[in-house]
Write a structure and sequence with these properties.
The protein is mainly alpha-helical and 436 residues long. 74% of the residues lie in helices and 2% in strands. The protein is built from 16 helices and two strands. The longest helix is centred in the N-terminal third of the chain and has 32 residues. The protein starts with 7 loop residues before the first helix and ends in a 13-residue tail after the last strand.
Length: 436
């Protein structure tokens, strides 16, 4: 897996991702503790609202940012957005009101909504081979797990010598180092394709995504994963501190257990995906997180919570990691930024539903009821994925283009004037998925 780090450009971008995520992980712990300091037992509701605002920024900004930036150099854009995120993070330790948390979170995550899809869409161009890209996806999953594993452990150690307000400095440093590493490499920018109107560019990724069966299944899996993840991220601090009467360090270690399970799965996935198709792996992972969320309703001790969060983390990674392969397989190079932005927006739309539900419902009706409700939502996502994503994931489909002249280049390329078959990708010539 580590062999792909020989590619200098990918190595620098991966390192930038790791460092920025460690800083973000410190912010996640500090933000939860800040919410608890301001709201006490209602911290789950405050944190749920803050994370819902984050999702609003992601859902609303990502497609628009991609449409406006599709002709800008990727490197310059990513560096500028890293600097914006660092500037906003500087302000977080000085908040005195809950509304200030909400405002700064929106500004920070609006910048992330432009940065993350741009970063994700660049990796397939840097690593064009399927095997290399699969390894890169697993490494990226490991990088995200650092936010849930290494960052909380680091935070727990730092909290023994500094106040949690000082943890926000780690976020600032992470974004600044990330910007420096991005500056150090050349990032390929593909041909953006024909010029389109702003509305067409803004909605293109969403239209391509929703017209592709495997991606509709991916969206359903995103919902199942978001239901479980919201329970873990929003309510861990409440379960550990109010439910078990433990300390801030135990909160950090509980989040680390979730990240540890995800990391175990990320190491196991590359050889597994060489032998098993994406669909059964992802649906099985989603089923694991649903079962784990349901079991959360009966957790009575901290050690059992750690084991359960480890299990949910494993399923979380198995369900999420192969998604980049689906997006790459379902788009042409010039449409890849739009399709990654669509995945970013739609997946976070699922979190927009589950984050406030986990926080507000938990505060009003208790954590046991919240676990049951979220597990039912996750189960609905798994059942939808089974229905929307055909078994075998067929794409080499027979179809025809009666609207095209006989001398159209597409028909000439396939040497036919009527029915023909090839791997189908939704684009300007193939607006609908052919029937199997």
């Amino acid at each position: 897996m580590l062999g792909i780090l020989k590619n200098r450009t990918y190595r620098h971008l991966f390192t930038a991702q790791v460092i920025a995520l460690v800083g973000t992980g410190l912010m996640t712990v500090a933000l939860g503790l800040l919410a608890y300091e301001m709201a006490g037992a209602n911290a789950g509701a405050v944190l749920g609202t803050a994370l819902a605002i984050k999702m609003i920024a992601y859902v609303g900004v990502a497609p628009v940012a991609q449409a406006l930036s599709d002709r800008l150099p990727r490197r310059s854009l990513m560096v500028a957005l890293d600097l914006v995120r660092a500037a906003v993070a500087i302000c977080l330790p000085f908040v005195t009101e809950i509304w200030q948390i909400y405002l700064l979170i929106f500004a920070l995550q609006a910048a992330s909504a432009g940065f993350t899809p741009t970063f994700q869409a660049a990796i397939p161009d840097i690593l064009p081979e399927e095997e290399d890209y699969t390894r890169a996806l697993s490494l990226s999953r490991l990088a995200y797990d650092l936010e849930s594993l290494v960052s909380p452990v680091l935070a727990a150690a730092l909290l023994t010598i500094i106040s949690f307000h000082s943890l926000f400095a780690g976020t600032v440093i992470g974004f600044l180092v990330s910007a420096a590493l991005v500056v150090s490499v050349r990032i390929p920018t593909p041909d953006p394709g024909p010029r389109r109107r702003i509305w067409d560019k803004t909605t293109r990724g969403l239209r391509l995504y929703l017209a592709t069966p495997r991606l509709r299944g991916l969206l359903a899996i995103n919902l199942a994963v978001a239901a479980a993840g919201a329970m873990v991220i929003v309510n861990t601090v409440v379960i550990v501190k109010s439910g078990f009467g433990l300390t801030e360090s135990e909160v950090a270690f509980a989040l680390a257990a979730f990240g540890g399970g995800s990391m175990i799965a990320a190491f196991a996935l590359p050889p597994l995906l060489d032998r098993i198709a994406d669909r059964p792996v992802m649906i099985a992972g989603a089923a694991v997180v649903v079962a784990g969320t349901a079991l959360g309703a009966v957790v009575q001790s901290y050690p059992v919570l750690l084991a359960l969060w480890l299990l949910i983390g494993f399923g979380y990674s198995a369900a999420q990691t192969p998604s980049g392969r689906l997006l790459r397989r379902s788009s042409h190079a010039q449409d890849r930024p739009a399709i990654f932005a669509a995945q970013f927006a739609l997946s976070h739309a699922c979190w927009l539903i589950t984050y406030p539900l986990a926080g507000r419902f938990g505060a009003a009706f208790g954590l046991q009821s919240t676990s049951i409700v979220l597990s039912l939502i996750g189960l609905g996502g798994v059942l939808l994925a089974l229905r929307l994503w055909p078994a075998g994931d067929p794409s080499d489909l027979v179809h025809e283009h009666p609207e095209l002249p006989e001398n159209h280049p597409h028909l000439c390329d396939h040497g036919v004037t009527g029915q023909h078959r090839h791997d189908l990708i939704i684009d300007d010539l193939h607006r609908r998925w052919a029937s199997t």
